[in-house]
Amino acid sequence: MSSRRRVRRTSNATVAVFLAPTFILLGVFLILPIVQSFQLSFTDWDGVAPVQQQVGLANWQELAHDPTFWLSVKNSFLLASVSLIIQIPIGLALAVLLDRGGRKFKVFKVGFFVPLLMSSVAVAFLFQGVFDFNFGLLNSLLNTLHLDAYAQDWLGDPNYAIWAVLSVVSWQFIPFYMLLFLAAMQGIPTELREASMIDGANKRQYTFGIQIPLIKGAIATAALLIIIGSLKYFDLIWVMTAGGPDHATTVMATYMYESAFKANRVGYGAAIASAMFLIVFTVSLAVMWLSRRSEKTS
What is the mean pLDDT of the segment spanning 243-261? Predict the structure, then answer.
């Protein structure tokens, strides 16, 4: 028994030594910034002054009654909802198409993956040109087709700007989920496909009856990634519209950046960042709980 205890202690000590660098890095670069963000949310600080004035819950009280913040929350959830509705079905359809095509569609795999290889800043500048009111590709195409009535100021009109941005975000990230689903599909044993063909199942029946149900885990993972990513999305939206016009495309991350670094209200920006963390954390837990519950009931 004593020798077993020694072996167990030695094994635990070895595991602790190898895991220690990971926990240290997580503590320094993840947990500590979150704690400091919450601490800053109780201050009135411009990011430059040597003294941080403590204001208690003033920033949080202002945040609770800030219409722009709640608009940013609404836009963030709209981004998450539209991304779920667009990215998962299209990504799934492309994955099924490529899985059926096999090696013949290898060139399409590369072509469909190109948007994800581009940086978000490059994509934002590219689509600024596409949606430009005077010289943009989209309005030029509409004019060429004699559909001038449908030409709009896509990024300058509050009614259209958010939808233009949402379409670009979905275009960029569909390839990622396509590859995620394709990898899951190619992990399905070929025996199942052959058995379904022997039993007389056609391609549609195999796809909806066997293939898609077997990759439910990958679909749930994709949904979680989309929700988390959408609720904290920043770069492409900031470059394309900077949250405008009239805060029509403002999401939580852009409003946090605008408050902290443009309005020099670092304390208030920290309150927005902390609220964003709480919202994302809560939604992530809820999605994981629902996913596990559905797995148990199925």
Answer: 94
